[in-house]
């Protein structure tokens, strides 16, 4: 009985340590994403921060995010961020239309965006293990790990539903980073196995 009490108290301490870190990271991520053209860069930086926190928990969030953000610019970040936001607005617009074919088109575009996000999460974390980090390689590795991809999709949908339905205030505080944490943990565990690290 005492062993279970110790385990449950350790779990509570870990949760108590992680929630402020997630809130701080979510705030830094939101602020750096405010100019829409930096959405890709700040999301990639947040995922790499989460990956670093798995090995070194005691790093200060703001300094770590700033260091990774400054060293993590890619050529097509601004265009990709802008196109992703335009696609999001199109999904919202198409789902508001009364006709069935526009709704189907909106759902198709939404699922394409979700698939793109999943492949991007594999590509971002793949950059830690392999310098040849192309979308094609990330897509192929994700395709070989369909169980992980399905788990990513289902757990993300469940978390979004829970946060938006029951804890909408909490979603603003830790929701986006909570989803990134889930994806980072799932993908990185699979990539460590693949590269024997």
Automatic annotation (TrEMBL):
The keyword Transmembrane applies. The chain crosses the membrane at residues 76-95, 107-126, 135-160, 166-187. This is Uncharacterized protein. Keywords: Membrane, Transmembrane, Transmembrane helix. It comes from the Bacteria.
């Amino acid at each position: 009985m005492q062993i279970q009490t110790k385990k449950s108290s350790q779990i509570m301490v870990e949760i108590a340590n992680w929630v402020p870190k997630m809130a701080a990271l979510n705030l830094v991520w939101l602020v750096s994403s405010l100019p829409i053209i930096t959405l890709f860069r700040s999301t990639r930086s947040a995922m790499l921060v989460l990956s670093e926190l798995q090995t070194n928990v005691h790093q200060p969030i703001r300094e770590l995010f700033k260091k990774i953000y400054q060293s993590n610019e890619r050529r097509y970040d601004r265009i990709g961020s802008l196109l992703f936001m335009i696609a999001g607005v199109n999904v919202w617009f198409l789902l508001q239309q009364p006709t069935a074919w526009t709704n189907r088109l909106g759902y198709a575009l939404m699922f394409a965006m979700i698939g793109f996000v999943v492949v991007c999460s594999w590509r971002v974390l793949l950059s830690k293990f392999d310098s040849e980090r192309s979308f094609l390689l990330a897509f192929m590795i994700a395709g070989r790990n369909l169980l992980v991809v399905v788990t990513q999709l289902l757990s993300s949908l469940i978390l979004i539903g829970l946060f938006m339905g029951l804890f909408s205030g909490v979603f603003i505080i830790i929701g986006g980073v909570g989803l990134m944490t889930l994806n980072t943990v799932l993908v990185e565990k699979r990539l460590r196995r693949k590269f024997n690290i």
